[in-house]
Amino acid sequence: MSTGFFDGIEKLAYEGVDSTSDLAFRHYNPDEIVMGKRMEEHLRFAIAYWHSFAWEGGDPFGGQTLVRPWHPQDDMGRAKMKADVAFEMFDILNAPYFCWHDADIRPEQGNFADNLSTLNEITDYIGEKMQATGMKLLWGTANMFSHMRWMGGASTNPDPDVFAFAAATVKGCMDATHKLGGENYVLWGGREGYETLLNTDMGQELDHMGRFLSMVVDYKHKIGFKGQILVEPKPQEPSKHQYDYDAATCIGFLRKYGLENEVKLNLEQGHAILAGHSFEHEIAVAASEGMLGSIDMNRNDYQSGWDTDQFPNNVPEVALTYYHIIQAGGLGAGGTNFDAKIRRQSIDPIDLIASHAGGMDVCARGFKAAAAMVEDGGLQKALDDRYAGWKTPEAEAMLNSDLASISERVLSDGINPAPRSGRQEILENYVNRFV
């Protein structure tokens, strides 16, 4: 039965590049075969429950602008109404996956027992809707940053009772994710960091964070959860400095605590930008270590120094992102989650649908460009040519040699290398042929 929230909005269809409709796909055809597989299977789109349904339109300087029938989000009746609307939107967009935090789908009760009870109740309700529609859960996670109990962190909190509350919360969310057939479980340490070193024992906090994550991995195996455990890097905001700063920092952390074979990364474009990186850089770093798990697709405003979580609209950036993902073997059990929100002035239901449709189109267009570049092989050939010297016996032997032997060879052979062009502009022009 329709909730009436999206009245007048029909299920979106692929209409091709000549379509002038605000509510149609021009580039995303889920059944189009690209590189031997349906596009839906490559991209694995997911809708973020928090931005689409839980966010009320506030920003650091102003309050609610999105007035929805399920507001205020303070009882189970409204939580179920919110779920009804969510599944209507999933159907309109023909999206295969969704993602949630516990606080997105159940009302805050102020204590753990009631939070767990309402979480179990709403996930039973959502599970019935998933069974009826075929919708799947890409991942679940716990919100351990919004409520005031988390103001000093969760697993890194100086209060051991907060650590305990966090452990119990994650167990409940993992159980719920497992129950719903989730394909991943994500941990984002929104306040796992510090405001000032004046009151912070960084070594102890990192050790506690590492032990907490080890407990998560142990519990995954205990309950037979087959999905990936993912951590999500972010450098700052809300904390001055967060311990999961970027992909490289997270990889170092995982290796320090012996978790590199158990945990992968969920990478977000907006977080990459806040860390001073491009998204493709973060993808390439994770892929080089075999730790690419999943992605959150969005963008930041380059004129703002905070996480604006806008929908993607830059095809060249998205194409380079997917190029590195394809080169790494694809997203596997991960997916493309739209961790993106409409602007606080975009208050109508149609804005929710159009924003996602546009984001899905940008990703599809970028993915097809990336696939074409991979199949053409121009970038790979340029890379192979640039490093071809390392394929010679002399170069390979040098890596197993020592400084003195290498020095003797330089003297005896009169080695005096001339600079070689990196041909960056030629490669940029090459990319522009596809996007």
TrEMBL record:
It is found in: Cytoplasm. GO terms for molecular function: xylose isomerase activity. Keywords: Carbohydrate metabolism, Cytoplasm, Isomerase, Magnesium, Metal-binding, Xylose metabolism. It comes from the Bacteria. The active site is at 101, 104. PANTHER family: PTHR48408, XYLOSE ISOMERASE (PTHR48408:SF1). Homotetramer. Belongs to the xylose isomerase family. This is Xylose isomerase. It comes from Cognatishimia coralii. The lineage of its organism: Bacteria, Pseudomonadati, Pseudomonadota, Alphaproteobacteria, Rhodobacterales.
